Structure formats: structure tokens, C-alpha cells
Automatic annotation (TrEMBL):
<dbReference type="InterPro" id="IPR004448">
    <property type="entry name" value="Nitrate_reductase_NapE"/>
</dbReference>
<dbReference type="InterPro" id="IPR010649">
    <property type="entry name" value="NapE_TorE"/>
</dbReference>
<keyword id="KW-1133">Transmembrane helix</keyword>
<keyword id="KW-0812">Transmembrane</keyword>
<dbReference type="Pfam" id="PF06796">
    <property type="entry name" value="NapE"/>
</dbReference>
<protein>
    <submittedName>
        <fullName>Nitrate reductase NapE</fullName>
    </submittedName>
</protein>
<feature type="transmembrane region" description="Helical">
    <location>
        <begin position="20"/>
        <end position="48"/>
    </location>
</feature>
<keyword id="KW-0472">Membrane</keyword>
Length: 59
């Protein structure tokens, strides 16, 4: 049989786990991921310009 005490604690733990998961995503993972994406794009543009030259008309 299931105790009523353990059944009432489950939603609290689930909500707490969801809040912790959200905070980890919002505070840790998304900022790191956004910096990595922007930095990767900047690196890609930099390497492209090293190989093919800067944008603009050909002199």
C-alpha cells in the first residue's frame, strides 16, 4: 500500500526539481550556449575573411 504522507510529498519534490532544472537551464546552460554560438560565428567570419579577404569592392 502507498502511504498518504509519501504521496503528498511527491508534487513538492517534482515542483522543486523543475525549478532547479529551469534555473540550471536559465542561468548556466543558455548563457554558455549563446556565447559559444556568437563566438563560433565570429570565428567563422574571421577565418572566412582571412582566406577570402575582407568584404568590399575589388581594387
Amino acid at each position: 500500500m502507498i502511504d498518504s504522507a509519501t504521496e503528498t510529498d511527491r508534487p513538492k519534490h517534482r515542483k522543486r526539481d523543475e525549478i532547479i532544472a529551469f534555473l540550471i537551464l536559465a542561468v548556466v546552460i543558455w548563457p554558455i550556449l549563446s556565447v559559444a554560438i556568437v563566438g563560433g560565428y565570429g570565428f567563422l567570419v574571421w577565418m572566412w575573411q582571412l582566406i577570402f579577404g575582407p568584404p568590399g569592392p575589388i581594387h
